[in-house]
Amino acid sequence: MWYILTMNKDVVYIEPEDDITDIISKIENAKAKIVALVVPKKADIFRSAVNVKLMAKTSAEAKKNVVLVTTEPSIIKLAAIAKLPVTKDLKTVPTVPEIEDADLKVVEIKDEKEPVVEDEDAEEAEETDEEAEAEDEEATESEEETKEESEEESEAEVKEDEEKSEEKAEPKKDDKKKEKSDKKADKKKSSKDGGILGWIKNHKLIVILTPIIIILLVLVLFWAFVIAPAVSITVTIRTVKNNFSENISFTTKLEEEDAKAGKFYLEEKKLTTPVKVEFKATGTKNIGEKAKGEVVAFIYFANAASISIPQGSTFSKNGLFYTSNQEVTLSWDGKSFDPCENINAIEDFVKEKSCLITASVPITANGSGSSYNVAPSNDGWAANVGVGVYSVSEIAGGTDRTITVIQQSDIDAAKESLTSPANETENRAALLASIGEDVYKIESSFRQSVGEITSSPALDEEVKEGVTPTLSTNLTSSIFVLDLTKVKEYIAETAKVTDKNRIYDIEDPFVESFTSTETGYAGRLKTVYTVGPNISAESILESVKGEPIGKIKPVITDLSGQNSTAVTIDRSFPWVNSVPNDPNKINIEIVTEE
Questions:
Q1: In sequence order, which ranges of 321-434 are alpha helices (DSSP H)?
Q2: What does the domain layout of the chain look like in residue ranges?
Q3: Is 295 exposed, middle or buried (0-12, 13-18, 19+ CB in 10 A)?
Q4: Nearest in space to 66 (alpha carbons), one of 42, 39, 43
Q5: Which residue from 252, 347, 496, 517 puts its CA 20 to 30 A from 537's CA?
Q6: Tens of pLDDT along 423-447?
Q7: Does residue 166 register a pLDDT over 60?
């Protein structure tokens, strides 16, 4: 007797798109002995009697008790034929349904290779007509035997009794009729499965996966034995360091360069940096009104003569300077005495034998201020044009108004701050950073020059309240550089290394005692270079391509010419036994040690 489905069981929900192989797999993979298949309403797979029988066969082979959970009459009918128990839900005791009469349509098979089935019910009818009586009897006997067993029997005993019951159940029809029915069923199944095509359909997962697995296997083998093999070879050789020191010369004209002879072209690198500094104005200036007035210029003529006082002539009194505003001429013809100022003093005239000529000259003070205001005076005046001077009227009108102005000493002091050591250090670092690493920088040639200086406000201009004067200019930093490639070529050529050796490394060279000469510049080039066996990665590559791993060390040792050469070989995978022929899969590194 069947256990109630609520006991230990696996509940499998069938999806509408599942095929027979999916359902068989779910039955076989179920862990419980009782497998409840919950059938959806639209499960076409349960419309075929063959598929239901295959489920029953799988149930027996897997030693599982399969129960269909459905209320569909057509599926219950097929379950009765296949002797599969059915229940309407998971809480009801399952039973094997009895076979009842049903209207089944049989479709005539016109071609055994290509069967034509009008519908699934017709296919079921064909088999049902042939086997109805025998299956009815088998289903009846199976149900009676099932009901007689106790519900408390173990699941294993139920399965064993069912298997015995099936073995004891014999069809009551004669052998000929059963044989005919079996042959027709086999023929129908063969026609439905389609031979090879049917097998492919039933094993489509294997059909799909097999070529994929083969392709993957081929790809893995191709990768492992063609793409993946690679070899890394590290060669360690002994080297010796030597000092280099040679006098060389330099030129600033490219056409004069002769690197092989030790004469190198100096390329000047420049960096212009705008600079602005603030400073304090300390100058003062009186911008008040200027004093004005007239002076009398006089001269004695013994004979006919003339003298001109140009506009802009300078007159001074007690250190104060004045400028004439117009041109004035003093002259005497030597005959007429009317112009002579001393005509009334004939005695003086005769005594001096000369004629005194005078003229008024308008003047303006050179500077502002009341200090230029002077009273009339017959002495203390001087002129730069060879005449005497005195004043008969006051020089007046000068007023005072003092302002702060930029004076030259202020500009000079600010200029010194532009070229301070801090600025020079900063500009040197910026210049060196702007130069590439493919040249040698002669740092002792560093120079810094100051461009045209602009003061704001300008020299002698007023500095208004709240304004801070500034000094602006461009600082140009410059340094000479050498082509490092040419320098190293010169060192390699001059070092006179033998054919058996070669230079592996040249440390950054430096120029000592860089000085200016009549023809250019001169200095002493110094560096340290490393010498070792004349072996290269290219020569090693050509010698080891395609060679077995065991021959690599002797080949490299012979190539380097010394037995002390150490060779380390790293294979990408343990199965790599020879060096690939592809240079891209061979990595060679030469390591030097002193």
A1: 346-352, 408-418, 421-433
A2: 10-194, 288-400
A3: buried
A4: 39
A5: 496
A6: 888 888 999 899 888 888 988 889 9
A7: no
